[in-house]
Amino acid sequence: MVTPICFASESMVPPATERLTRRHANREGGDAAVRRYDAWMFQVSNERFEELAAEAVAALPESLSSHMDNVAIIVEDEAKGRNLFGLYEGIPLTRRGFSSYNAVMPDRITLYQTTICQVCASEDDVRAQVRKTVIHEIAHHFGISDPRLDELGWA
Asked: How much is the pTM?
């Protein structure tokens, strides 16, 4: 059984904002801030991002989603100190034993909204990256490793 998707968003993106924006990072030092990069970033509202994540989960084949067990999917702004689109935390289905897996918190799949949006130039790009990230992290729930996902083209 799939735990209903619960989104706990910490994003600072203003609500109902769907636009292309520039991000600037400044170098430390000197009197004047020097622009280190100009990168386009497509922003979607927290609500829209959560809808895209829910769509990605809903689009999973029934033969796959019916085997998902005790997993929650949440959205956060970005991973602290890491550059990740998503993160699976939990005990994969392949490592669960009948007597050793009981009374445990749900596995957790976290999607990082800002990190995903930083590499996207349109809502279609965001949708595609969210879908790929959801599939990648759910694969970890099923016990598929990063090297295997790389072989399959889902890394």
From this structure: 0.72
